[in-house]
Inverse folding.
């Protein structure tokens, strides 16, 4: 088991390095620079000298190899430098957003798991009955409906119905309050995006749970368990569901990693100051240093999540552990 | 009998109340409260001397004062400037308009308690006008005429100009010219204000959570007596326009100072009725059509003239203003400024005639003469809906009416500017001019081939000469006369670039927000000292 873990850990290094090289090169292929955008992009008249000084001060005139070494050294030492746009430390800027994104990801995952596993299991156990059809319709609707669109509907619904019922339109708070400061206010803001993203997330997981469970239920060992006279509840819970969870755990893990940096539009819809919004702003502002750091963070989250999934596999399936 | 007396007393009380209401001002100013407003752009740094975005002005300007400013009670006037940290009237200029002496108020304090004197104002303008090596100044070019700035004592500030120019006072009134403490610059250096705030404005800095909000609280020692009326403000970052609109509808914010499209205004009014007040104004911004003179056939003035002649600006104003933030037909100077062309003067310029059929007939003839009747080209545009993509699509339709076949190439902002400024590999592009203070004498430099923000790629010594003469003139009549010639040269004779329509600023806000008056720019009148909440 330890050898397995060490092997998986070592494999992370080339993955991270490859991603670093790729993002560094790709960013520099995209036309545009932060100084021109920041100073000339507002339509004001700006002295060219100011733009030149800005470039010099941000190290944009340095050789590419020097910039790359700076970036790699920064990544290894967890010092990404300063954002080219705000001049603030990147670790501080990311840290501010990380808390919110992590909370939304956890809340959405909880929503998804609560919905997906029972519904997926029921759907498989009641295959081709009206219950199965209802669950499948519900989950297909979830896949078909983008979470940002559901988010827009939620906000509009809240505005319209609160005005109709109480005379004053109400919408969720648009600024983040830490749960340690005011839990009520925090949940009032984050519950809606968690539901909007959790629903889509649950739809994928429900379908995966259903198909995986159906497959497992047809296995010989399930037939054997039943033939031995084991209670149906035990057959399902101990033998079928646990084995069906392998692909479901993969889906949940990948979706979780995606939520940490990929809620780009949903964060805009709910005005969440999360990593996704920061990502978009950094790309739009041609903020190389911030974009590089964010990409590396997301890559690291994916790599780590995959590592955890691999460990789960080993725990769930002894064949993986022993091989 | 007792009942009769009671009724009489009530009637008398009501009568006195009504009479008092009639004699008191329409609405007495109420003090207190926090103003929540939404901002659609991000703060790069707190140093206004190097920044150009309203994303910094809206949340940070309330912490700072300027030497002079647009009159907060009459901000729609493009020529009404009043003192902020100076006192009396804004100086008219002595020694033939080459010396401006400002009397600085006594008793002004920075938020850290340091007294503010003329030496602080001098140090701040020194940073803007004569920045040390390696320190950028975004507006240095506006002060080319300034030869020296001196502060002989604590209450006197003198600007010496090497030549008289009408651009000077509007340039001083720009909202970016924050007054910093000299001791902060001396002690902490010229980059300290990028991350720190210490001003003399109506509000003291409380907190900035990047990407989320900036908050400020009332500064009791503010130099305009009795102001500010608010206890504080919170500027909430909200990049999506639809969310900013919903925030006002859901009362999470009371106002957004930049401006909404007409549809958002109509939706808010429909949803909230008299709980919404709408202020509207011409906006000191416009989109231009910039042909690349270095690419054939746009080096031919006949082709460029055809491009502007084909566009029905008067009709466009009527219909586009229903869906986009554009409306006013104007030339190169801000439409309501004394230096702007009148309608009679405008209609003599190519593309501004009221007979669109005649204009388009001439456009077709010019294209035929140039041998490009079936010209097809690509219009380069910025990936922003309001108003870029809308105006771009409208232009394509206008050009189609004279036989031009045009495709649109839309790029995100970084790539858009890289194409305009570096690669220059475009045929015709949408370009953008948007200024804070209305300063036509400086703003029209955009038409000069030598200007850093002119992307058409041409040289026109005649225009350069006219510009120099105009900016060095201190006589408004002469300025106006040269401005007409300059405008005719740029838009009519050479058609080097064309103005589409001037923007139109629409600010719907909660009706309980009082005191704020719309200005012709989203950069102006943002000190928030005269705003109060009728709640």
């Amino acid at each position: 088991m330890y050898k397995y873990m060490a092997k998986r850990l070592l494999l992370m290094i080339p993955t991270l390095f490859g991603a670093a090289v790729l993002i560094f090169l790709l960013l520099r292929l995209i036309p545009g620079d932060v100084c021109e955008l920041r100073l000339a992009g507002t339509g004001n008249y700006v002295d060219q000298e100011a733009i030149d000084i800005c470039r010099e001060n941000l190290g944009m005139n340095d050789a590419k190899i020097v910039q790359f070494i700076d970036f790699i050294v920064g990544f290894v030492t967890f010092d990404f430098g300063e954002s080219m746009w705000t001049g603030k430390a990147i670790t501080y800027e990311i840290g501010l957003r990380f808390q919110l994104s992590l909370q939304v990801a956890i809340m959405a995952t909880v929503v998804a798991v609560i919905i997906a596993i029972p519904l997926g299991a029921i759907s498989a156990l009641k295959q081709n009955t009206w219950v199965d059809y209802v669950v499948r319709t519900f989950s297909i609707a979830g896949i078909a409906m983008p979470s940002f669109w559901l988010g827009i509907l939620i906000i509009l619904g809240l505005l319209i119905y609160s005005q109709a019922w109480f005379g004053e339109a109400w919408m969720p708070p648009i600024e983040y309050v830490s749960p340690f400061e005011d839990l009520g206010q925090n949940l009032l803001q984050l519950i809606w995006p968690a539901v909007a993203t959790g629903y889509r997330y649950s739809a994928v997981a429900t379908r995966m749970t259903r198909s995986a469970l159906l497959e497992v239920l047809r296995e010989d060992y399930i037939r054997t368990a039943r033939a031995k006279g084991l209670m149906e509840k035990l057959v399902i819970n101990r033998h079928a569901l646990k084995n069906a969870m392998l692909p479901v755990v993969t889906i949940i893990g990948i979706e979780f990693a995606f939520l940490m940096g990929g809620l780009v539009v949903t964060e805009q819809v709910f005005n969440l100051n999360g990593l996704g919004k920061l990502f978009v702003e950094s790309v739009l502002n041609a903020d190389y240093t911030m974009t590089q750091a964010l990409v590396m963070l997301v890559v690291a989250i994916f790599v780590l999540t995959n590592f955890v999934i691999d460990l789960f596999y080993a725990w769930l399936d002894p064949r993986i552990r022993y091989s | 009998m007792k009942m009769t007396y009671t009724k009489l007393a009530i009637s008398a009380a009501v009568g006195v109340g009504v009479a008092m209401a009639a004699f008191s001002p329409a609405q007495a100013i109420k003090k207190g409260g926090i103003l929540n407003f939404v901002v659609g752009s991000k703060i790069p740094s707190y140093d206004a001397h190097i920044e150009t975005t309203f994303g910094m002005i809206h949340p940070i300007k309330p912490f700072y004062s300027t030497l002079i400013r647009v009159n907060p009670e009459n901000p729609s006037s493009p020529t009404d400037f009043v003192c902020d940290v100076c006192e009396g009237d804004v100086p008219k200029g002595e020694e033939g308009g080459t010396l401006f002496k400002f009397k600085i108020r006594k008793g002004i304090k920075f938020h850290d308690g340091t007294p503010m004197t003329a030496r602080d104002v001098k140090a701040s303008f020194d940073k803007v006008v004569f920045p040390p090596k390696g320190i950028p100044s975004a507006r240095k070019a506006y002060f080319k005429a300034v030869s020296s700035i001196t502060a002989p004592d604590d209450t006197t500030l003198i600007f010496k100009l090497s030549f008289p120019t009408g651009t000077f006072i509007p340039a001083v009134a720009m909202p970016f010219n924050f007054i910093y403490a000299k001791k902060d610059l001396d002690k902490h250096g010229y980059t300290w204000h990028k991350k720190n705030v210490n001003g003399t404005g109506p509000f003291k800095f409380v907190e900035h959570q990047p990407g989320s909000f900036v908050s400020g609280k009332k500064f009791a020692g503010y130099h305009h007596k009795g102001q500010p009326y608010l206890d504080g403000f919170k500027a909430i970052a909200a990049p999506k326009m639809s969310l900013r609109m919903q925030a006002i509808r859901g009362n999470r914010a009371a106002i957004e100072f930049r401006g909404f499209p007409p549809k958002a205004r109509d939706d808010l009014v429909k949803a909230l009725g008299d709980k919404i007040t709408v202020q509207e104004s011409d906006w000191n911004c416009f989109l231009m059509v910039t042909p690349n003179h270095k690419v054939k056939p746009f080096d031919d003035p006949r082709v460029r003239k055809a491009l502007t002649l084909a566009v029905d600006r008067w009709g466009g104003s009527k219909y586009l203003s229903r869906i986009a933030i554009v409306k006013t037909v104007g030339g190169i100077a801000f439409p309501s400024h004394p230096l702007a062309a009148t309608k009679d003067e405008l209609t003599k310029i190519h593309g501004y005639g009221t007979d669109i059929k005649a204009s388009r007939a001439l456009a077709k003839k010019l294209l035929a003469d140039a041998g490009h009747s079936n010209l097809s080209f690509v219009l380069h545009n910025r990936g922003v809906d309001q108003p870029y993509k809308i105006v771009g699509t409208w232009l394509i339709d206008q050009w189609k009416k004279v036989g031009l076949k045009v495709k649109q190439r839309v790029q995100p902002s970084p790539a858009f500017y890289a194409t305009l400024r570096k690669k220059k590999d475009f045929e015709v592009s949408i370009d953008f001019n948007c200024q804070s203070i209305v300063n036509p004498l400086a703003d029209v430099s955009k038409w000069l081939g030598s200007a850093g923000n002119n992307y058409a790629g041409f040289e026109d010594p005649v225009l350069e000469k006219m510009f120099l003469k105009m900016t060095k003139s201190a006589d408004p009549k002469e300025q106006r006369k040269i401005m007409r010639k300059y405008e005719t040269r740029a838009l009519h004779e050479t058609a080097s670039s064309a103005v589409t329509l001037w923007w139109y600023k629409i600010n719907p806000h909660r009706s309980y927000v009082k005191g704020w008056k719309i200005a012709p720019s989203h950069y102006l009148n943002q000190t928030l000292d005269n705003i109060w909440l009728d709640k």
Remarks:
- Chain A touches chain B through 59 residues (CB under 8 Å).
- Chain A has a mean pLDDT of 89.
- The domain at 94-322 of chain A is CATH 1.10.3720.10 (MetI-like fold).
- The two ends of chain A are 9 Å apart (CA to CA).
